[in-house]
Every structure is written in structure tokens, then in C-alpha cells.
Amino acid sequence: MNTGNTSRRMRTTLTAGASALGMAALAACGAADTGAASGGSDTVTIAVPSWVGAEANAAVAKHLLEEELDVEAELRQMDEPVAWDALDSGKADAILEDWGGVPKKEKRYVEERKTVVPAGDLGVTGHIGWFVPKYFADEHPDVTDWKNLDKYADELRTTESNGKGQLLEGSPSYTTHDDAIIKNLGLNLKTVYAGSESAQITQIRKYVEERKPFLTYWWTPQWLNAEIDFVEVELPEHTEGCDADPEEVACGYPDTPLQKYLNADFAENGGDAAEFLKNFRWSTEQQNQVAKWIAGDGMSAEDAAAQWVKENKDTWEKWLPKK
Questions:
Q1: Fewest CB atoms within 10 Å of the CB: 142, 171, 233, 272?
Q2: Are strands 43-48 and 72-77 parallel, antiparallel or unpaired?
Q3: How many angstroms separate the CA atoms of 130 and 113, rounded?
Q4: d(Cα 269, Cα 267) in Å, to the nearest integer?
Q5: How many C-beta atoms lie closer than 10 Å to residue 187's C-beta?
Q6: What is the model's pLDDT at position 175?
Q7: DSSP H or E segment with residue 98
Q8: Rounded to an integer, what distance in angstroms lies between the CA atom of residue 32 and that of residue 48?
């Protein structure tokens, strides 16, 4: 689930694929036929970051592209840095949920090379932070102020945290400032990575079942928030530029309106498919519903997308190009 410059997030229920493999697959099977300038695209390749909210976006987009616009859609999982390289090269046509985790690539490809163009707001605002379970905050109300976290380091200690309080993390591929925040605030904490979004969720559920205290890097939107009550720990307020130097970060994370980006050639020549993806915009609640069906209820992404489309025509028909 990090931003201003780099505070955007970061989560994973999709099967994780190495970046190199993602690029190899793209090289073997190129991205969208951005086709003729007049005819638009016959195939669209969407880069899907490795968390379930991004999977929900892509699954719904794929369903509508294929069922309503007769355009084949290929979904390819890749981490954000690889996705940006693929957008630049034309091996991917779109990314539907960007948290701004690779600002240098964004600047290079959007502002300098002009090979990637903004495609509008997804309609979802992301936020990363440190969270504890409500039952722990109810017992110790002062834990929600970062200045008091060291008081609870012993209770947060695990076998993996080397005698310090544990800050549970998700995937190492997520962009975070947590090691710098811990160091610069002088906290007796250590980041411990579960390995993926799904592994982090499994660990969180185990702690909740056992009513154990825990501190975790977490984010919104996230479908699990409807199941488990989290309370955010107040870190020092995020101000413009406070995360400019990754080594010196001592502030919290900002709210981040999540963005879509398209390959520039596809944006110009992709016809109805490109217009549809520019128009794609839904709410946090809608994304969470599809994500919960996939990750929480065990539905396939295809079935979850079809169910949502069946129930929400008033929303998605506005995304279709006007004839």
C-alpha cells in the first residue's frame, strides 16, 4: 500500500512473478496491437501490479473490453517499475492503478520522453500507514501516537524481530519508507516481511484470532478492512517534500489519488479501447467488493468481474465510448 513523491503502496494476492520473467513474457508476446490509427486496437495489454485491488480493476476492465467492445485483453502481472518500462516500450498499453512509487520513471517517460501519458484518476484514494488492531488500541489508547510505540516494543516483539518490536510488512517489492522512519524517529522497531499481501493477511488473521498485539504496515483501500478493525498510529504529519530524500524520511504517508497511465501511441491510436480505459473510474467501495470476492470469498477474478458487471450497469455503461 507511498507517495508525495514516493509514498504509494503496495500489496499481493496474485501469484508473484519475477520482474525479469514479466518482461520476458512481454517480449515474447507484445502488447496491444495499437493497430491502425482509425481502427483502434484488437488486443490490449494491461499491466497488473501485485495486489488484489489492482487485480480487481484489471478483471473488470478485461470483462468489459471483451464483452462490450469486442477487444481482447491480456492481463500481465508485473511490479510497478517493470510496468513503467513496458508502457514506455509499448509492450504494455495501460496500468490502471499507480501509486507513484517510481517517480523517476514517471518523470522520464511522461515529461521527458513523452512515451507515457496520464489517463485520469481511478476514483480511488490510497493511503498507507502503520496500524494496530482496535482491541489493542482500546486496551492501550496511547499506542496510537508514534511517540509511545517504544513502550510496547516488548509486546510487539516476535522471534523474527531480533529483540525489537515488530513492524509487519507485506512484499519486499512494495515501496515503503519504514526503515528510514524507524531509524530517523529513533524507534525500537524492526521491519519483518511476510513476503506478499496474502501472506501478510494470513499472519494478521492469525494474530487477530489469538488476540495478540501487532503493528503492521497497511493501507486503504483494502477489502480486509471490512472484516478487521484497524486503528492507525499517528506518525509525524506528511508535508510537501518530507519524503524527497528516502534516507531522511521522518514523516507519515500522504493520501494518494490513484492514477491510470497509457502508452502514448495506444492513447492516440487505440480507438474505443483507449477511450474506455480513460473513462474507467469507480469507487473505493466498488473496488473493495470485487477484491473481497476474489481474495476473501475465493471467486475467480473472471467470475467476480462478471458478477460486478451484472450488478452495476449504471456505473460501467458510462465508461463506454459514445456512439
A1: 142
A2: parallel
A3: 36
A4: 6
A5: 18
A6: 75
A7: strand 94-98
A8: 15
User: pLDDT tens, 238-292?
Assistant: 999 999 899 999 999 999 899 999 999 999 999 999 999 999 999 999 999 999 9
H helix intervals, 157-230: 178-185, 197-209
Residue 191 has pLDDT above 60, yes or no: yes
> How far is residue 88's CA from residue 111's CA, in Å, rounded to a whole number?
12
| Residue 257, strand partner residues | 125
Task: Return the amino acid letter for 182.
Answer: I
Pairing of strands 189-193, 165-169: parallel
What confidence tens digit (pLDDT) does each residue in 105-153 have? 999 999 999 999 999 999 999 999 999 999 999 999 999 999 999 999 9
Name residues whose C-beta falls within 8 Å of residue 254's C-beta, 6 or more positions apart in sequence. 3, 4, 7, 127, 238
Q: CA-to-CA distance for 107 and 123, rounded, in angstroms? A: 22
Say which residue the cell 480505459 belongs to.
277
The answer to whether 28 touches 88, Cβ cutoff 8 Å, is no
Chain centroid offset of residue 205 CA: 20
How, if at all, do strands 230-233 and 43-48 pair? unpaired
Return the pLDDT at 92: 97
166 φ/ψ angles, rounded to the nearest 5 degrees: -90, 135
Q: What is the CA radius of gyration of the chain?
A: 20
pTM of the model: 0.76
Distance CA 288, CA 261 (A): 21
For helices 271-279 and 52-68, the axis angle rounded to 10 degrees is 140
Rounded-to-integer distance, Cα 50 and Cα 53, Å = 9
C-alpha cell at 288: 473493495
